[in-house]
Specification:
Blueprint: H1 4-11, E1 16-24, E2 30-31, E3 33-38, E4 53-56, H2 62-74, H3 79-82, E5 85-88, H4 92-100, E6 106-110, H5 111-120, E7 128-133, E8 137-138, E9 142-145, H6 150-161, E10 164-168, E11 172-179, H7 186-194
Parallel strand pairs: 4-5, 4-6
Antiparallel strand pairs: 1-9, 1-11, 2-8, 3-6, 3-7, 10-11
Helix pairs in contact: 2-7
């Protein structure tokens, strides 16, 4: 299992392909990146964030950096010039808490992890607002080597697609596993191109 962007990177150095994605009790087969801010700061659109402090999660985070940064660039907001200060918080919860506590004006996080933070009482829903939402991002894929025998590949795929209601840890359940293919991650590749990230090849 790899993160969406990690999978795209993997295809540039290894002969692997995505074949399935888990749908959990907390999230479906896709999720979104969102940009959040406190409701009481008077921010209504992304343009209101000019000169403000902004947090991404981690340089390699799909929803906490890559997708929102690419979207900002497409909209004409170069984060390095548009925001007063840009930091990497190191985690989705850290970004959410920084906005809640007023240390950061706005941040990019995954919607599913924001909802989890609400559910745990880490932050209050009534204090925060979403200023932007990305297009659906395919979730973490299961991948396998392309050079495996065809019969084995079929059996692996069938075994994963038969999974139902499988507990993973103490906080989530894989409700089912859905089929997927490499083309589902073309949006990740396009995002990499916008950000001028150096991938060796695109499939």
């Amino acid at each position: 299992m790899l993160g969406p962007f990690s999978y795209v990177l993997a295809t540039t150095v290894a002969d692997v392909e995505a074949f399935a994605v888990p749908e959990t009790s907390k999230a479906g087969a896709s999720y979104h990146a969102v940009i959040i801010a406190r409701k009481d700061r008077g921010f209504h659109t992304l343009s209101d964030l000019k000169g403000r402090n902004f947090a991404f999660v981690d340089p390699s985070s799909t929803s906490g950096h890559l997708f929102p940064k690419a979207a900002l660039l497409k909209l004409g907001y170069d984060p390095d010039a548009f925001f007063g200060r840009v930091v990497f918080s190191g985690g989705h919860d850290a970004s959410v808490l920084s906005v809640q506590n007023g240390k950061i004006d706005a941040a990019a996080v995954a919607d599913a992890l924001l909802e989890a933070a609400y559910a745990r009482g880490v932050v209050k829903r009534e204090d925060l607002q979403v200023l932007w939402t990305s297009e659906p991002i395919p979730t973490v894929p299961y991948v396998m080597r392309k050079d495996l025998p065809d019969d084995l590949r079929k059996r692996i795929r069938a075994a994963f697609l038969d999974i139902r209601d499988l507990a993973v840890g103490s906080h989530a359940t894989i409700v089912r596993v859905d089929p997927i293919d490499d083309s589902a991650y073309d949006g990740i590749r396009e995002t990499a191109k916008v950000l001028k990230l150096e991938l060796k090849k695109f499939k």
